[in-house]
Design brief:
This protein is mostly helical. Among the domains are: about 50-125, Tetratricopeptide repeat domain (Serine Threonine Protein Phosphatase 5, Tetratricopeptide repeat, Alpha Horseshoe); about 230-283. It is built from 14 helices and no strands. This is Tetratricopeptide repeat protein. It holds the Pfam family TPR_19.
Amino acid sequence: MRHTVGVTVLVAVSLTLSACSKPEDENVEDALASINVIDESNLNEVMLTSADPEEAVAYFRRAVGEKPGRVDLQRGLAKSLIRAKKPVEAAQVLTGITQGPGGTSEDRVLLADALIRSNEWKRAEAELSAVPPTYETFDRYRLEAMIADANKRWDKADSFYDTAAGMTTRPAGVLNNWGYSKLTRGDFPGAEKLFNQALTYDRNMFAAKNNLVLSRAAQRKYDLPIVPMTQVERAQLLYTIALSAIKQGDVIIGRGLLEDAIETHPQHFEEAVRALEALSKQQ
């Protein structure tokens, strides 16, 4: 009899312990699941920003293959493809996202970006037109400016560039693009001003330095601007000014600038040497 009671008590205790431990197990599982989600989110962010573009593409392709219903992973794949300079593939992924229930205005803007990179300007314009006007972001206005530029709608382009520049703490790129737009229109003083502004935000942007000397040379200002530059950059900028001077008929000045570029460059400056030799043969 006592044996039976003992067994009964033992079973009761076991059931009690089991009942007590089950919620704890569930809590542990929930906590581990949360940690896994956090770890995955962090890894996704690292792959999008810091990883080699091709590695990021491979990572997100694998992730999408394992979880094809995850829109965030599809979006990560599209962004990685853009970083890897594969905009056509990125546009295909983004088209699928925007046509699905999980698509957002951000995805449509990203699709427009990929389409512009793929030289599909009309499709990009159509995608941006489908974005609600209340969706106001730097990327949206940056792309709107580029499309207005391509359509030679200068007033709209200037307005969009100005808006975009005011919506970021790093406007060097958009200011450089705006300056290049002014340069192609023949507004050389306006372009010069914008390139100088771009360099106040990013003193290492060589594209802005090169565009700056182009805008100055177009006004027959053949001296180097006062901006930070390395010795190699100085030689390359002198070369750019030299070619601009020769193109405008100022051949003697151009020859002198080519000679300066060759002398300034710390190594052999093949392009400048060839240009000087070609110029000598013509005279």
